[in-house]
Design a protein that fits this description.
Elements (H helix, E strand, L loop, with lengths): L1 E7 L9 E6 L2 H14 L10 E7 L13 E4 L4
Antiparallel strand pairs: 1-2, 1-3, 3-4
């Protein structure tokens, strides 16, 4: 399994999106996300960013329906 952590930036604020990282364990992906948010002070300024974690079973392939692979969405908290 592969866990892809994504930061969807704020288009109104002009902040870019970012692939935070790709991990082989879900716990590592979630820890990395928390470290990334803390290091970039993203929790201090409200909900300008959306954070997603996708679970993929294979590389080098196109995944057309992201909802099939989504395991975490910060907007659902």
């Amino acid at each position: 399994m592969y866990y892809v952590v994504v930061d969807i930036g704020c288009s109104d604020c002009g902040e870019a999106s970012n692939v935070v990282g790709i991990f082989t364990e879900e716990t590592k992906a979630r820890t990395a996300l928390e470290q990334y948010k803390a290091a970039n002070k993203l929790d201090l300024y409200g909900d300008d960013h959306q954070f997603l974690i996708y679970k993929l079973t294979e590389l080098n392939s196109i995944h057309n329906n992201s909802f099939d692979h989504l395991i975490y969405d910060s907007e659902e908290e």
